[in-house]
């Protein structure tokens, strides 16, 4: 359902402005994650970056696409670009750390996770990515610890949301 809605909105945006980078990025993500349309995903993601080279999220999503298609070296370069563009984002840096780990750049990935945790130690998504990276590194205890922390933070967020709803 969310894939169809995202596609519909992005296509509507492109009908108004065919050079809207964010709409191309969304269509790239939808093509990859929902349709498994690798050619369409790459076409839209590279177009988004061409139109706005400063969009960290487009670089992040392209790096994720490159990992999914087995192009780890290219993914690491895109991940670094995303991290350089938005050094404070736990999502961007978590994803970058995972891409670096996928490319065997374990020390660089670990350093990126450590830096990102200093910026936002309560980011659930960061721990999610970190768990996957440490698993690939063969650091099973660190992977499990990061995954436990991810679930703790998600549970806290859910409780906070429920308490806020109860107050309304």
Explain this structure to me?
Helix content is 83%, strand content 0%. It has helices spanning 2-16, 21-35, 38-51, 56-68, 72-85, 90-102, 106-119, 124-137, 140-167. The longest helix is centred in the C-terminal third of the chain and has 28 residues, at 140-167.
Number of E-state strands: 0
**Uncertain runs with pLDDT below 50, 5 residues or more?**
none
What is the straight-line distance between the termini? 28 Å
Rg computed from alpha carbons, rounded to a whole number of angstroms: 17 Å
Order of helices and strands: HHHHHHHHH
Which structural category do the helix and sheet elements fall into?
Answer: mainly alpha
Strand percentage lies at: under 5%
Shape: globular
Mean pLDDT, all residues: 94
The biggest beta sheet is recorded as: none
Count of runs of 4 or more consecutive helical residues:
9
Kindly state the percentage of residues in helix.
Answer: over 70%
Brief digest:
By secondary structure, this protein is an all-alpha fold.
